[in-house]
Amino acid sequence: MSKDQQDRLSYAILQHFQDLISSKAVNGEAAESMAVAVQCLTEALGVDLADPEHTTKLKVDQALQDLFDKSYPARPIPTKVVATKDEEAKANDLKDEGNELMKQNKYEEAIEKYTEAIEVVPVATYYCNRAAAYSKLTQHESAVKDANDALLLDPGYSKAYARMGFAHLNMNKLAEAEDAYSNALRLDPDNQSYKDNLDAVKEKINAGPNVMSQAPGSGMPPGMPGMPGMPGGFPNLGGMDFSQILNNPAFMNMAQQFMNDPNMQTAFTQMADQFMQGGGPGAGTGAPGAPGAEAMGALGPNGIPETLTLTL
Question: For a surface tag, which of 39, 122, 191, 223 has the fewest beta carbons within 10 Å of its beta carbon?
Answer without folding.
Answer: 39
